[in-house]
Amino acid sequence: MSTHVADTVENAIATPDKEQPYAALGLKPDEYAQIREILGRRPTSGELAMYSVMWSEHCSYKSSKMYLRQFGQKVSEKMKEKLMVGMGENAGVVDVGEGWAVTFKVESHNHPSYIEPFQGAATGVGGIVRDIISMGARPVAIMDQLRFGAIDHPDTARVVNGVVSGISFYGNCLGLPNIGGETYFDSVYQGNPLVNALSVGVLRHEDLHLANASGVGNKIVLFGARTGGDGIGGASILASDSFDAAGPTKRPAVQVGDPFAEKVLIECCLELYRLGLVEGIQDLGAAGISCATSELAANGDGGMIVHLEEVLLRDPTLTAEEILMSESQERMMAVVEPSKLDAFLAVVAKWDVETSVLGEVTDTGRLIIHHFGEEIVNVDPSTVAVDGPVYERPVAYPLWLDALQKDSASTLPRATSGAELREQVIRLVASPNLADKSFITDQYDYFVMGNTALSFPDDAGMIRVDEESGLGFAIATDANGRYCQLDPYAGARLALAEAYRNVAVSGAVPVAVTDCLNFGSPENPEVMWQFKQAVEGLADGCLELEIPVTGGNVSFYNQTGDQPIFPTPVVGVLGIIDDVARRIPSAWQDEGNNIYLLGYTRDELDGSAWAGTIHDHLGGLPPILDLSTEMDLAGLLQGAAIESLVLSAHDLSDGGLAQALAESVMRFGVGARVWLNDIIERDGVDATAALFSESTARVLVSVDREDDVRFVGLCNARNYPVLRIGVTDQRGDDAVLDVQGQFIIPVSEIRERSNETLPKYFG
């Protein structure tokens, strides 16, 4: 047992002038003064620890809250139709029909993943999965959204191999399929990789659980792994701090994960739910017991008393403050009726999950924590968990932005021959951001559980929810930091549109959004301007598309010294499909099908993969976006899926038509003959724009010749632009991509160049 003597409330009253290390805990002088004013005295060291973690940027959203409110304000009646649980809970929940619901959320684990890539990424997966369990759902899939530094930087391999190993280890051990995500490389993320993890769960409507401590006399029970010294202040304080050239200014230990303990915890929780033994539940993530107790109490209807000495410890030397702040993984806190406690304890014993009854719900309106009989915390839980400081940070239009936007890619030299176009296509296919990612994704299990309908490298992941009806959901995530650097309002909307389109091409109907907003320091007025613009763009876009934001995460302080990352709002879109048998894959599988391009191509190369890869250029304005056109396209694709008119559908985004064609011929080794003349004539563009423009609302589809007339009729009836631009050609060793009148590339050469990039640096 620790010999440390805890700082009591009585002691705090008796020693008002005692100096306290609030600055070292990440609190500003005025915040510390505010805590003293709330309490009417100085805080105990335990209270100071709680306020410091719960008022951190990561936990309190103090710099972002005023902007995030738009997601709840810009809402139509249609946006509420399928929404069962929105923002403010552990994860959003959406009604998908037939009595089923899906819960999903994406969160960041950026800073821990730079310090300790394996454990940082592994515990990022573990944390987001526990958010899903806490809603009453069985987790059924994960995804990851990764941003690393320059592919050839000496430190990038350390981070990439550690992060990918951590994700695959934890997810594979849990038996959860990894069904999609993104991996991008850019020197702007060198000291600040982004490791965003998404999890999805499935539940029956009646199994929904929320995080609140209600019912006087109900017991507060901590169960799962023992509490240790790992990750004290980790995600909470670490995520509220930036890295300078010398490394992180605070180096608490990164949490250590045990996926096998979490797998048992999942099954244990699901049995507790099934037997109706839990009134409220909360996972222990950032800020640990501080967070779980204060949030449960604040969301309930009374107060709570907790006896901290009852916490089961891995390390008996931990002080009371360390127990409160520890972010040890694989722990849950439940609210249990006294009459059900024995049954609860029987279930956790059956699963061999360690458990301790810490206290009970009271009617005091206070969160009171004792440690060996001494009162060390006595606070109004709302002041800790809900009513933290809200900052209206200074906002300033970036001084450098006008010059960046004037520097258009339209002045860059373009190919003057078919041979030059061919060479540029190959360079794009082999570039780090467009090259084949199977070196990474092959480390993940896509098909465990047997319900995966679509996965890498399809545009969206898809999971079957109900075996009998075939009901399922699709999910896709997207972000484009280059576009957001040029215009964060437009960039956020473009990320939303791309994820929406990726769900639509799978045959599903987009219905809901989650987001992970990755930005630099909120103390930089230019970063706050970027953040304000991006949130506004996303909220406006969701209102136009009439799909709600169900929740998400904000990650600030992603910068090294004074250099912030590009604004990188990751947007995840969830869609519903009534029968996964009608799913649409992303690439053609047969010879002799007609290839159609849906949508118009404009001369839009600013911020494009072509500009970045061929000319190392970033400048100008992102592509034009019309969300009503995106909705028309989604409706057209849904109609085509219902009538089984398209054999494949692939959205056009990074790398434009050239990349979509390359990915389509590589997937199943079926070549294509394509002509650009009709695009060039109809849309008034040259061959470079026809191949590499990243204009929005465009999809490449393949159609069986027998369905040609019906498909074109469907497009014409919906007044959507459609052009036949080619046919699928022979498969096997002789397969080629023949862009007629310009160049021919063997599919084997495309595949070889695409496949060699990542192994060259990381294998």
TrEMBL record:
EC number of this enzyme: 6.3.5.3
Catalytic reaction equation(s): N(2)-formyl-N(1)-(5-phospho-beta-D-ribosyl)glycinamide + L-glutamine + ATP + H2O = 2-formamido-N(1)-(5-O-phospho-beta-D-ribosyl)acetamidine + L-glutamate + ADP + phosphate + H(+)
Residues noted as binding substrate in the record, renumbered to the chain: S108, H109, N110, H111, R130, Q255, E327, S328, Q329, S555
Positions contributing to ATP binding: Y61, K105, D515, G552
GO MF term list: ATP binding; magnesium ion binding; phosphoribosylformylglycinamidine synthase activity
NCBIfam families, sorted: FGAM_synth_II, PRK01213.1
Family: Belongs to the FGAMS family.
Name of the molecule in the record: Phosphoribosylformylglycinamidine synthase subunit PurL
Organism name: Alpinimonas psychrophila
